Amino acid sequence: MSTMEEYLNQLKAAFAEEDIEDFNELKEDLLEQLAICLEEGQTETEVVARLAPPEEIAADYYADLSLDAAINAKTSVVPREEIQDVFIQTQKKRMQKFAKTVFKVLKPLLLLVLLVLFSFFFIYIVKEINEERNLAGIPTVLCLLLLAISLQLAKGWVSKKRRWVNGLSISFVAIGAVLLLFFSVTGQLMYTGRQYYKEINLSSNNHAAFSFDSDADVEITTVEVSSTEKPSLMVKGRFKESDIQKIENGSYDNKVNLTLDEENIFDTFTRTGRSEVIFFIPKGTILDDFHLGLSQGDLRLLDIQTKNFDLDLTSGDVYAKNIIADEGNIDSNYGDVIIEESAMNLKVKSISGKTVITGMLGDLMIEGDQGLSILKFLRSDNVVLNNHSGRMILEDSETKKLAATATEGQVIVKRTKGDLLMANEQGKIVSEENQGTLELRNGYGPTIVIQSSKVNANVSSQSGFIKWLQDPDQSVKVTANTETGELKNDFSKASDSGKYKIDVKSKTGDIKILEKVE
After folding, report:
1. pLDDT per residue as tens digits for the range 6-23
2. 90 belongs to a structural domain
3. Same domain, 495 and 437
4. Directed axis angle between helix 54-72 and helix 80-132, to 10°?
5. Residue 508: which domain range?
6. Mind listing the pLDDT tens digit for each residue in 324-361?
7. Structure pTM?
8. Where are the alpha helices (DSSP H) in 187-321?
9. 119 and 37 share a domain?
10. Is 88 within the bounds of a domain?
11. Which residues, 6+ apart, have CB-to-CB distance to 253 below 8 Å?
12. 144: number of CA atoms within 13 Å, CB side?
């Protein structure tokens, strides 16, 4: 036999009519093997000569059938060791056949995925060349690699040009390797933009406003300058070419409104590093708006007068001093916020991190999750503090109304005057030397009150421990009640002046009302 056709005819003759479907599958495998060998330069005669005789292949096939019959038979005349050996070989063949079938089924889907990836990286390359005047290093290398893999997967559908396809795939891989080495040596794997410096001057102090947003790492500073100067802005650092053009072509009259390094999927391989922005604000100038929206950065903001003060920061620290505004809003997810000697109605939202506010005039609202809030020397009509599991400390302040609530954190208020409400579900409440009226509600955590002066108070707890220390020289009649806990009240027989009243109750917790000892 010198041709595959003759070989297949003899093989078909060795198969029974009912097994012709299995023969056809075997025929496809042999023809595919022949095509690969021919592509490698072998002749058809050489390939056929190396194949096992048709009778032997047919005998193996029917041996497998006999194995199935022997395994399923009630009695077996075949030696057990032989059955096990044939079974193992049969299972290997079946697994190989199953793997080939799965690959044939999944190959179109895999090619589709590779095509989608190639399209994305190709668009990435075109956009970066067009907008940034830069050849995207990593996407270019990946495009070449994806082309090589795709050609290898698709070559089974091109029977006459497989050698050409192999050569083209090797060429793509080689070019990709050379470019990868080049980009690595020259430091161009990631696009880093170019160094840039620009000063932007506004035309007038009247109704001036600044708005700056960036998804890159930015250091922000404000500087107070002479009242004779105009508001201005300085940007310095590495920027993408498209952002540089945005700055150069921007229209600036009385307002700067810039959005730089805006994050998108086509900046996956862009690394511009930290930039610097400085705002120059003339003394006495009242801005219409001062807005910063940053993904990450550090802010040092001093001596700003504005109608609206707005900071939106994902990570990074804020230090602000002498900020005068009608309304203020600070949203900092993971950084520290420090505000000193300022006046505004302020809202602060933080997931974690530290919030420190001292010497502030105006209403205050803080929404937190698990951070630390330290507030000192506030003068406010309304203070609202909400925290989940963090710690809130208010000291030496004056407010008409305070509402401090937590789920499982700590609420500590010291030396503060006003109508004070402190509520917690299972955390700790501490009230020390406050003036005004106290309303303390705790579910399951401890409540501790230390007082030298007289106050009106209502203290309630589900099962938490309550301890009240009162200066005996400022005694107040205390009414205390617990259903099942231990009760001790040193002020149960104090005279009732009628002006001050303290009511303490717990459902199941212990209550101790004790004389304060210096």
Report:
1. 877 887 777 777 777 777
2. no
3. yes
4. 110
5. 363-518
6. 999 999 999 988 999 999 999 999 999 888 999 999 99
7. 0.76
8. 241-249
9. no
10. no
11. 202, 203, 204
12. 17
